[in-house]
Amino acid sequence: MYQLLTGLRIVECASFIAAPSCALHLQQFGAEVIRIDPIGGGPDFRRWPLSPEGRSFYWEGLNKGKRSVAIDLSRPEGRALAVELITAPGEGGGMFVTNFPPNGFLAHARLRARRADLITVRVTGWGDGSSALDYTVNAAIGVPYMTGPAESPEQPVNHVLPAWDLLTGAYSAFAAVSAERHRRLTGLGQELTVPLSDMALASLGHMGQIAEVLTGGDRPRMGNALYGAFGRDFTTRDGERVMVVAITAKQWSGLLAALQLQSAMAELEKALKVSFALDEGVRFTHRDMLFPIFEHAIGACTLVELQGRFEPNGVCWGPYRTLSRGLAEDPHLSLDRPLFNLLDHPSGHRYPAPGAAATLDGTPRGPVVRAPHLGEHTDQVLAEVLSMSAAQIGALHDAGIVASA
């Protein structure tokens, strides 16, 4: 954890990936994050992957370093208490991250009536506020028809990485600190809505894919070939599969040198009257002629032999591995790095947990903090943020409005 955002207090009322990851990014740069959790846990409290005992690794991964206040949100008194926490005074407070619906007791207009400079970052599914998940948005924008084998054009292929959730979480964190800077300059709060669908559409638009569709139609499937450049999976002599990519001219020349294909490529270029070195798109256009040449050259080498050729020539490549094998074998994926701290987690398991993905030059990392137990900080937060006495907090416990770990 770093201390760049020390002094900011974020109240999070959210579940699943996008909004909780937004608050996680802010926490790992120094913000205090207070989670408002339903007593007994929200809809993602038991989400897979689970420990053998049934505790959610997912939940404790997304909520590291946060403080948890457990409140019965089904009761008016509980909802009023949540609103008090969100709108509590203080220069660094008044920042709220949620994926609750835009209407209801957490509507920005209602909260703003209690704190005029409130900043609300609200993650939604569709732009109109209706429900959607990463996987339904991804299906709607056509990505599952761009991936998969070319011989099965009608069979959608879902991916396992929730890209729009993760991008939305990161973008929402950026939006939050931007709004906070604006508030410092003007004194004005505001609501920022970040729909998964808009994140997906904007991302495809930034990469030129919307323009591509509007001018030339949908992109066809092409298996594991890299669109617009040279790249594909190949199999070594000992049956290992590797991904090889050459986007830049340097990567291309290094690949040819490693496989001793300079002469073969020169002859092919002469015959086709093209230069593979100058234009990555030309390599893609003629991939059906190039791939068999590389299949033969790579297929003549074992994985170890290939590595011995690739590494000195700066080839961009990587072997295909399962995650468990990659963590065990690949030094790039080592968990014994400053990114990770070995922690005892609420699940009862001890394993390395990542901190901030960025490394700041000259700034030491602080320790990664485990996720809270539900309600672990209820009493502490009510006393610190709302200045409640022990008697007042005790009365809330007696009434069943709050709970502690």
What would you say about this model in short?
The chain is an alpha/beta fold. It has helices at residues 18-28, 57-62, 76-86, 108-112, 134-140, 163-186, 196-206, 209-216, 249-259, 262-272, 280-285, 287-299, 303-310, 323-329, 378-386, 390-398; strands at 9-13, 32-38, 67-71, 95-98, 119-124, 190-195, 230-235, 241-246, 316-319, 340-344, 350-354, 402-403. The protein has two domains: 9-204 and 337-403, Crotonobetainyl-coa:carnitine coa-transferase, domain 1 (Rossmann fold); 241-319, no CATH class.
Main CATH class of the largest domain? Alpha Beta
What series of H and E elements makes up the topology?
EHEHEHEHEHHEHHEEHHHHHEHEEHHE
- Tell me the CATH architecture of the largest domain: 3-Layer(aba) Sandwich
Low-confidence stretches: none
Q: Total helix count?
A: 16
| The CATH topology of the largest domain | Rossmann fold
| Strand line-up in the sheet with most strands | 6-5-4-1-2-3-12
**CATH homologous superfamily annotation of the largest domain:** Crotonobetainyl-coa:carnitine coa-transferase, domain 1
Main beta sheet strand tally, sense and closure: 7 strands, mixed
Shape: elongated
Explain what the structure shows:
With 405 residues, the protein is an alpha/beta fold. The protein folds into two domains: 9-204 and 337-403, 3-Layer(aba) Sandwich (Rossmann fold); 241-319, no CATH class. Helices cover 39% and strands 15% of the residues. It is built from 16 helices and twelve strands. The strands form three sheets. It has a seven-stranded mixed sheet with strand order 6-5-4-1-2-3-12, with helices on both faces. Strands 7-8-9 form a three-stranded antiparallel sheet. A two-stranded antiparallel sheet has the order 10-11. Strand 10 (340-344) and strand 11 form a beta hairpin. The two termini are 24 Å apart. The mean pLDDT is 97.
